[in-house]
Amino acid sequence: MLRRTLLGLCAALAVTAAQAETPPAPSAPAAKPNPRVKIETAEGAIVVELFADKAPITVANYLKYVDRGLFTGATFYRASKPPGYTAADYGLIQGGLQNNPAKVLPPIAHESTIKTGLTHKTQGTISMGRHAPGSAQADWSITLGDMSYLDADPKNPKANPGFAAFGQVVEGLEVVQKIIVLPTDPNRGEGAMKGEMLVKPVRIMRVSRVPVAPPATAPAAAPPPPPAAPAPAP
Question: Where residue 59 sits, what CATH number does that domain have?
């Protein structure tokens, strides 16, 4: 009986030692955080998260302008809302370089909301301005309220390709609300922009990246407990 007991204890100790030598499971790699930028204007600062994970082409283009300082001195020049509407909770403001030939970069491919899964229904959506799809360069808008009519029509994307949403305001939405109620000139602007051009465009002093803290790494899974030692043989 003593011999059987010793054999059982030796087997349990061998299993425990083998498990102790097994390295812990590696931690799951943390997802890379989306970049953020601060748009510093004469009316205050707006911080925007750019969804590089969903609209990589559009975000990369925007960050080229940011990193090269090309938006310095640009303006918010348009405030669009329904005629006669005076509240600050619906519409969009538009800013950028207004096709300044000294600063604009080549146009980019259109990233449809059908492809990205983003929507202009979300408050504070930032979206690229364009003429035809694939012509977007350096002008963008920030929305207030549900403006999902700017999304591509999933039933007929050729007829309505929509606009390329690529981020969302995370701080400074009140600045957008201040700009959208500024006076507009009823005689300026062409087409859909007629009457929506600001009398005094809001100067953009600088657009720069905001440091983003990396997400916390998920802890490694705990190793399974060692099996119970076998009961001594009778």
Answer: 2.40.100.10
105 touches 69 (CB < 8 A): no
- If DSSP codes are grouped into helix, strand and coil, which group holds residue 128? strand
Assign 195 to helix, strand or coil. Answer: coil
What's the total number of domains in the chain? 1
Length of the chain in terms of residues written: 234
Q: Cα(first)–Cα(last) distance of the chain, in Å?
A: 6
Q: Which residue has the tokens 């425990």?
A: 16
Residue 13 β-bridge partners: none
Residue-wise pLDDT tens digits, 72-84 = 999 999 999 998 8
Q: pTM score, two decimals?
A: 0.80
Query: Count of alpha carbons within 13 Å of 118, Cβ hemisphere only?
Result: 27
- Compute the distance between CA of residue 105 and CA of residue 68 in angstroms, rounded to an integer: 11
